[in-house]
Specification:
Structural class: mainly alpha
CATH topology: Sodium/glucose cotransporter
CATH class: Mainly Alpha
Mean pLDDT: 84
Distance between the termini: 59 Å
CATH superfamily: Sodium/glucose cotransporter
Radius of gyration: 22 Å
Largest sheet: none
């Protein structure tokens, strides 16, 4: 079977890609308007929404970046995926019902629409749209790079494409992504999530047991090998250190409620009461899927340290290398296929909210009406994909680091304005604007100038802390706002 390993893997990936293309074509027939393209008609069921929430969170960030980060830094990134569950809870308990009701009240197409309804201004949704665009570029670059890294590892194992470049894989990945996203919009994304979410859960559990039996002594043997090389790596803080890990805990915990690709899904399900059923399904699916994150990263580090596997060219190839060389080829093919589907559906979600910011939210601020909005939305999707691909190629960052930058950008701008602002009537539009601007200033300044923050504190945690302080100080220092009576009633629920 080893001789046919790559053929089996490529066949599984090819079949799954065809399925995704079929979903895109099916979704194209259901996408009749910009409202369908951006919001899926606000008619999603419980299971579709639940699977969309957790699989969108993992995607290339968790399936490629996660193992790569564990391989490079040990147990540090455990503080990312464990506290994302806390973010799910905060999102649903603090926002679930209110966000769904406000979106229906204002017939919202996007998150900035709801923000504008809450604060009664044009400036706040405009600034949220700008923040979303910056975050989308970083997070979408994560998906493009993850897909390209995995595709390169698969194609490099074939005789015909053994020397294929990362740039060529980025081009191929973007071509597939553009077709998928342009045809179906958010409808293609959420319904693919239902399929690949189930694949993620089953495959992650099987991979976990494969890891356990692929190394002498199982996880005990893996831990001993890593500890002999670097005791810190297998410790609770990994090589990042306590302060750095706690900054991730803060950013990925509280910051989980500021991720537009997650909270936008809360505007799409049928009934406001469905949130209490969606949350547990999302958490359970995420927990099982995240087994792949830590198990592959640890075993690949142990295999390299023990001399059983060559040093990895890049940490991001940890997942692909394990699947290529140690997993059963059928299982590897299914996981690769599910990974590509996860990346495409997540990238589609980001393209969707980014396109909504460009084609709907920003023009709305200036009272501009875009003719043939659906056509221009699809064209904008293509341009955002190209821009993100360039950022992925030339930023020089790992998949997980790019993902953390996008996550931090979203969290710092959205958590004060939405998570707290939708639950605190005293919050003012001026405070919301100041919080968004301060968060963008910190994130972009640190990223553009390569500033090193002491003690490995994540820039997203720093900018989130600053934006929260600004938000509360300005709100308490300015007059109490006059809320729309309908908005006030929703906030009382």
């Amino acid at each position: 079977m080893d001789e046919q390993r790559n053929t089996i893997i490529l066949t599984c990936v090819g079949l799954y890609m065809l399925l995704c293309i079929a979903v895109g074509i099916w979704a194209l027939r259901r996408t009749k308007s910009a409202h369908d393209f951006f919001m899926a008609g606000r008619d999603l069921g419980i299971m579709v929404t639940a699977f969309a929430v957790f699989s969108t969170t993992l995607s290339g960030f968790g399936f490629v970046g996660g193992p790569g980060l564990v391989y490079k830094m040990g147990m540090s990134s455990v503080w990312m995926f464990v506290c994302i569950i806390m973010g799910f809870n905060i999102s649903f308990f603090a926002l679930g019902k209110r966000l769904r009701l406000l979106s229906e009240l204002g017939n919202a197409v996007s998150l900035p629409d709801v923000v504008g309804l809450r604060y009664g201004t044009r400036s706040t949704p405009f600034l949220i749209a700008i923040a979303i665009l910056f975050g989308v570029i970083g997070y979408l670059a994560t998906q493009v790079l993850a897909m390209s890294v995995v595709l390169k590892d698969i194609l490099a194992a074939t005789d015909a494409m053994s020397n294929i470049s990362l740039e060529a894989c980025v081009f191929i990945s973007c071509g597939i992504l553009v077709f998928y996203s342009v045809t179906g919009g958010i409808i293609a994304s959420v319904y693919t999530d239902l399929i690949q979410g189930a694949v993620m859960v089953i495959a992650a559990v099987l991979i976990f047991f494969t890891v356990m039996y692929s190394y002498d002594g199982g996880f005990t043997g893996i831990s001993k090998t890593i500890q002999a090389d670097d005791p810190e790596a297998i410790g609770p803080w990994g090589t990042l250190g306590m302060v750095g890990c706690l900054s991730w805990f803060f950013m990925f915990g509280l910051g989980g409620s500021g991720q537009p690709h997650i909270i936008t899904k809360m505007m799409m399900y049928k009934k406001p009461g469905d949130a209490r059923k969606i949350l547990p399904v999302s958490i359970i699916g995420y927990l099982f899927s995240a087994l792949l994150w830590i198990s592959i990263g640890l075993i690949m580090r142990a295999l390299v340290l023990s001399g059983q596997h060559p040093e990895l060219a890049t940490a991001d190839s940890a997942a692909a290398q394990f699947l290529q060389h140690y997993a059963h080829p059928v299982l590897a093919g299914i996981v690769f296929a599910g990974l590509f589907a996860a990346i495409m559906s997540t990238a589609d979600a980001f393209l969707n909210i980014g396109t909504a910011a460009v084609m709907h939210d920003i023009p709305k601020v200036f009272s501009l009406k875009i003719a043939n909005e659906l056509f221009w939305a699809r064209l904008t999707t293509v341009l955002l994909t190209i821009l993100s691909a360039l950022f992925a190629l030339y930023s020089g960052d790992l998949v997980a680091i790019l993902g953390a930058f996008g996550w931090g950008t979203f969290a710092a701008a959205i958590v004060p304005v939405v998570t707290f602002g939708f639950n605190w009537k005293r919050a003012t539009a001026l405070a919301a604007n100041a919080a968004i601007l301060s968060s963008l200033a910190v994130n972009l300044y640190v990223k553009l100038f390569g500033i090193k923050i002491p003690y490995n504190i994540d820039v997203g945690a720093l900018s989130l802390t600053i934006s929260l302080i600004v938000f509360f100080v300005v709100s308490l220092s300015t007059p109490k706002p006059d809320l729309d009576p309908d908005v006030a009633e929703v906030m009382d629920m």
